[in-house]
Write a structure and sequence with these properties.
Rossmann fold; binds NADPH dihydro-nicotinamide-adenine-dinucleotide phosphate
Length: 434
């Protein structure tokens, strides 16, 4: 904490991983001898830069840009960009730290990194978003590349922003280097299923959890927080598998729709009109109301999928979920569940899937996008989705097997932390003191 003052989220994510590692370090003294943990906690490189741009009124605006290149033992740095007013170094570092282990779990050759800006795209015109992205890329372009660092989207960065960023990268470098950014449109080097991948992947992971006790999604009541990229496609896959999503949200509140969320309507409002969850309630009429107070986690359900943001599910929420009969919490978002909530869920016998395992489908499909770019190929939706489903099944089984090996049977958090850590640690040992 003395070394990284004021970076609360980063401290939280490091604690969460280190809490699981005692038995590993005891079993493998070479990790301590080579100071693997200390090296893992120190990013290889962090870049902070000024992003000046002009808004539609002609006023000069200044934002701060970040890219934290955390660990490249397994491959080029890989991780998204987040545009949200809450972004500061502590958020970017927590996300980058998580990304190291998540990327290892995918089994793909990718290191961990993350970036973003405190720019808020909400309420900005397309032209403003484009000018911001172009200015952001002026600096970022010096640091990224197919073999160096490959950014993607995250909160506030979707297909529109990746388009502007890639266009500017291409212009600066005079190279159509598709493998430098992922999350591109299918017509210009993107992969099918990338848009859907994180949400679908989270639901595939839960499907495997249910299967371990001979169960499935059929008829399950599911609550999904958020209504952005991850949430929308988690809802879609739950519905395809026979479950019903009865509630979702944005930062202004949540809606409960007992008949099941009307996904086509929600997609139109969120993806086309860039509207709010309140617009969904209005469009659905009397049956559905926006609840601006109270927690979405008080809605009784079988499965809860936090898919919005960090620390959105606290201890009181976890208690509500357990009381309402929830059996599984799986993180579509990064670190949405607070440490004391994770503890309460365990005590209450609710199965918990951490984000670094459950939401790894997004980055895994980004790695599949890089594969397609490298071979100048474009795979079908069915082929790409089957690859994603297989990867999620493998991550699930690996977490369970590792938890079992380290005497914590059924504990996905311990399994994910140890499996991700050992893979990166072994690579760092092999590569020497770098
Ligand atoms: P989007 O920007 O598409 O959607 C974010 C959603 O979360 C919106 O509904 C937003 O509501 C809500 N939200 C954001 N911040 C807050 C907040 N402070 N309080 C309440 N609600 C909030 O982002 P994504 O769907 O891409 O990302 C969601 C989560 O999933 C993040 O934690 C991200 O790191 C993680 N993730 C994303 C991946 C991806 O492929 N996109 C991959 C792996 C993880 P509002 O519009 O009102 O702000």
């Amino acid at each position: 904490q003395r070394r990284n003052p004021g970076e609360a989220e980063f401290h939280q994510s490091v604690h969460e991983v280190l809490d699981s590692l005692g038995p590993v370090v005891a079993k493998h003294p070479q990790y301590a001898e080579a100071a693997i943990i200390q090296r893992l906690c120190e990013p290889e490189r962090q870049i902070i830069f000024r992003v000046p741009w002009v808004d539609d009124a002609g006023t000069v605006q200044i934002n701060r840009g970040f890219r934290v290149e955390f660990n490249s033992a397994l491959g080029p740095f890989k991780g998204g960009l987040r545009f949200h007013p809450s972004v500061y170094l502590g958020i970017v570092k927590f996300l980058g730290f998580e990304q190291i282990f998540k990327n290892a779990l995918t089994g793909m050759p990718i290191g961990g990194g993350k970036g973003g800006s405190d720019f808020d795209p909400k309420g900005r015109s397309d032209a403003e978003v484009m000018r911001f992205c172009q200015s952001f890329m002026m600096e970022l372009s010096r640091h990224i590349g197919e073999y160096t660092d490959v950014p993607a989207g995250d909160i506030g960065v979707g297909g529109r922003e990746i388009g502007y960023l890639f266009g500017q990268y291409k212009r600066i470098t005079n190279r159509y280097e598709s493998g430098t950014l992922t999350g591109k449109g299918v017509a210009w080097g993107g992969s099918r299923v990338r848009t859907e991948a994180t949400g679908y992947g989270t639901v595939f992971f839960v499907e495997s959890m249910l299967a371990t006790r001979g169960d499935d999604f059929d008829g399950k009541r599911v609550v999904v927080s958020g209504s952005g990229n991850v949430a929308l496609y988690a809802i879609e896959k739950v519905h395809q598998l026979g479950g019903v999503v009865i509630a979702c949200s944005d930062s202004s509140g949540h809606v409960v729709d007992e008949k099941g969320i009307d996904l086509e309507l929600l997609k139109d409002i969120k993806e086309v009109q860039r509207g709010r969850i309140a617009d969904y309630a209005t469009a659905r009429g009397d049956d559905v109301r926006l609840s601006a107070t109270g927690s979405i986690w008080s809605v009784p359900c079988d499965v809860a999928l936090p898919c919005a943001t960090q620390n959105e599910l606290n201890r009181a929420d976890a208690a509500e979920l357990a009381r309402g009969g929830c059996r599984i919490v799986a993180e579509g978002a990064n670190m949405p569940t607070t440490p004391d909530a994770v503890k309460l869920l365990a005590e209450a016998g609710v199965q918990f899937a951490p984000g670094k395992a459950a939401n790894a489908g997004g980055v895994a499909t980004s790695a599949l996008e890089m594969q397609q770019n490298a071979s100048r190929d474009s795979w079908s939706f069915e082929h790409t989705e089957s690859r994603l489903a297989a990867i999620m099944g493998t991550i699930h089984d690996r977490c369970l097997a590792t938890a079992e090996e380290y005497a914590a049977p059924g504990n996905y958090l311990v399994g994910a932390n140890i499996a991700g850590f050992t893979q990166v640690a072994d690579a760092m040992l092999a590569l020497g003191l770098i």
